[in-house]
Design a protein that fits this description.
The complex is a heterodimer of chains A (239) and B (383). By secondary structure, chain A is an alpha/beta fold. Chain A has a single domain, classed as P-loop containing nucleotide triphosphate hydrolases (Rossmann fold), CATH 3.40.50. Chain A starts with a strand and ends with a helix. With 383 residues, chain B is mainly alpha-helical. Helix content of chain B is 67%, strand content 4%. Chain B has a 4-stranded mixed beta sheet with strand order 2-1-3-4. In chain B, α7 packs antiparallel against α10 and α7 packs parallel to α11. Classes of the chains: A alpha/beta (239), B mainly alpha (383). Chains A and B meet through α2, α3 and α5 of A and α9 of B.
Chain lengths: 239, 383
């Protein structure tokens, strides 16, 4: 579903991502684990076509991110780290706007919005302006906005960052539910616990390079926990 | 679009400003100026005469006129004028009467403050009085020689202003209004363009927009149309406010404003302003797309706004009768000149065509730049 092959990204002389390779299978939650500035967000931005790779190829559902960028975008729902919403619009209006931008038929859009509001327990906040919503509900609106067109692939960039325990739990449950629905998910985080809980496979990324790729099950068998494996990989790289 | 229409700053610039400012400028300021000027002219100004004792008759004549009153001062004349004790002063020679009697020349100095309106009015009144006094003296001397005073005036000149008072005030209004309209349109357009470009960066909504199925060209086109529509709303309010103000004034018996605001001229003004709105929207979007933050966008756009103000008021130094063609290629300036032509019912089609063409060409270039920035990740996501 997602194939990242020999991909690098340079910003001037700085190499943010250095020759990485990742394969994410259909229905899998793949975690990108790394410290701040490791290259997780840049990688996800390249997959979602916000950035173009300096080298290498990315395909999503068979579509190339350079030559078929519109098709790639049609196939993904991207939740950036920052919850950017239009404070003067209501939750429903924001979701509708993004639905229209994602080519949803205007006759079906209101039913779709109702569905997604229900799924994210946002019905009672639908007509409130986003500026008045709590951080947790803003995050839910951002998720709704990203999935309104029902794409097969979701890209979540640190979706629980800054959320309280209850809101984080709601988001994690939602991600699990997406997996159960057969979605493919590229999930970035610097939280070992949530990555360990929800991901099937992970890649540890550090200074733009992938240090380790493995299944959670195998990592737990080999190292005892994801945290130990992560620290060992990063320390090994530093020494 | 819905979002920017709920933005108080945009609403203020696009709706409130035109509604309040146009009537204020259309008749408030001319009314204020004319009434203040009239009041000063009708008032009596106090003046001093140095060596007044040399001619009681001259002093009495001035004092006898209702508009000037001679007073004594106990400080230097320039100081008395500066601190407002008197509006002006006259210095006559100590042998004034003798020189007049002996038919000799008399040198008179008038002291006044050119930066004070009251002093200027007093100066005019004194000049008027001296001119009359000089003429009477000449007439008297000629009469003593039994010569007809008409001999000194072989040509009598009578200036006849074909413009009515209304037309004069209409001309003044045509000078004031075009720059004002241009500036209101520019301000409204700039606000909306900042909100829809760099505003998306600051709100962190840009990334989410860029990953929708809509391509970047369509996104920038949509944004441009939203800015343009907002500015059109602003122009609509400007035209309504202008029509209302002019309509209201035409119902007043005391003063009519004969600027030519028929349906046809209104449409031309609307179209010209709309074209300018396209250009301003493109300029705002190009500069604001490049900026990293509101603050940086304001740093780019504020000097632009100054430039727009300077170009708008550039029409003050030009006369539409003999301005030539070059100014109609200069953006903003051409718009104000054409609106001025329209308001005084003197539209030159060539000027209109040049204005429309140059504005459209510049707009296309600026839209292309904005679109290029939106496609260039190193510019759109400048670190």
């Amino acid at each position: 579903m997602i194939s990242i092959q020999n991909v690098s990204k340079r910003f001037g002389k700085f190499k943010a991502v250095d020759n990485i390779n990742i394969e994410v299978e259909k229905g899998e939650i793949f975690g990108l684990l790394g410290l701040n500035g490791a290259g997780k967000t840049t990688t996800q931005r390249m997959v979602s076509t916000v950035f173009q790779p300096s080298e290498g190829n990315i395909t999503v559902n068979g579509f190339n991110s350079k030559s078929d960028s519109s098709e790639v975008r049609r196939n993904i729902g991207f939740l950036p780290t920052e919850v950017g919403l239009y404070d003067r619009l209501t939750a429903r209006e924001v979701i509708k706007y993004f639905g229209i931008l994602n080519d949803i038929d205007e006759n079906r859009i209101n039913d779709k919005i109702d569905e997604v509001l229900e799924k994210l327990s946002l019905v009672e906040y639908a007509n409130k302006r986003c500026g008045k919503l709590s951080r947790g509900n803003k995050q839910k609106v951002a998720i709704a906005r990203a999935i309104i067109h029902e794409p097969p692939v979701f890209i979540f960039d640190e979706p629980t960052s800054g959320l309280d325990v209850i809101s984080s739990r709601a988001v994690l449950d939602f991600v699990k539910q997406c997996k159960d629905d057969g979605r493919t998910i590229l999930y970035s985080s610097h939280s070992m616990y949530e990555t360990e809980e929800i991901c099937d496979k992970i890649a540890v990324i550090h200074d733009g390079k992938i240090l380790m790729t493995d299944s959670i099950e195998h990592i737990q068998k080999e190292h005892g926990s994801l945290e130990k494996a992560f620290i060992a990989a990063v320390k090994g790289e530093r020494s | 679009m819905q979002d920017i229409l709920r933005d108080r700053r945009t609403l203020f610039a696009t709706v409130i400003i035109p509604i309040l400012l146009i009537p204020l400028m259309t008749f408030g300021i001319p009314l204020l100026f004319s009434s203040t000027e009239q009041q000063i002219v009708e008032q009596t100004q106090y003046i001093a005469i140095i060596n007044y004792e040399s001619s009681e008759e001259f002093t009495k004549l001035i004092d006898g006129s209702r508009s000037l009153r001679v007073v004594a001062i106990d400080k230097p004349i320039d100081e008395a004028i500066r601190n407002g004790t008197i509006a002006a002063g006259i210095e006559i020679p100590k042998d004034f009467d003798n020189r007049i009697l002996n038919e000799q020349n008399v040198n008179i100095t008038i002291y006044y403050d050119a930066s004070s309106r009251t002093s200027n009015v007093a100066y005019s009144k004194i000049m008027q009085f001296l001119s009359m006094y000089s003429k009477n003296t000449v007439d008297e001397r000629l009469a003593n020689r039994e010569i007809d005073p008409q001999i000194l005036s072989p040509i009598q000149v009578y200036a006849s202003d074909v413009a009515t008072e209304d037309e004069v005030s209409g001309y003044l209004l045509s000078l004031i209004l075009p720059p004002l309209l241009a500036i209101i349109v520019a301000t409204g357009g700039m606000n909306a363009s900042i909100d829809l470009t760099v505003g998306e960066k600051e709100r962190h909504t840009l990334e989410a927009l860029l990953v929708t199925s809509t391509n970047r060209r369509d996104l920038i086109t949509g944004k441009f149309l939203a800015v343009f529509s907002t500015t059109l709303v602003s122009i609509g309010f400007i035209m309504l406010s202008l029509s209302g103000s002019v309509g209201y004034l035409s119902t007043l018996a005391v003063q009519q404003m004969p600027i030519f605001l028929t349906l046809q001229t209104s449409i031309i003004v609307f179209v010209i302003l709309s074209l300018m709105a396209i250009m301003i929207a493109s300029l705002g979007m190009a500069l604001a797309s490049f900026a990293k933050s509101f603050k940086e966008a304001n740093n780019y756009l504020t000097p632009m706004l100054f430039l727009i103000v300077i170009l708008s008021f550039g029409s003050y130094g030009l006369s539409i009768e003999d301005v030539g063609l070059i100014p109609f290629l200069v953006p903003i300036l051409n718009v104000t000149l054409v609106i001025q032509e329209v308001l005084v019912n003197n539209l030159n089609i060539l000027h209109l065509v040049l204005t429309v063409t140059s504005t459209l060409v510049i707009s296309i270039i600026l839209i292309s730049i904005a679109s290029w920035i939106f496609h260039k990740e190193s510019l759109l996501f400048r670190a």
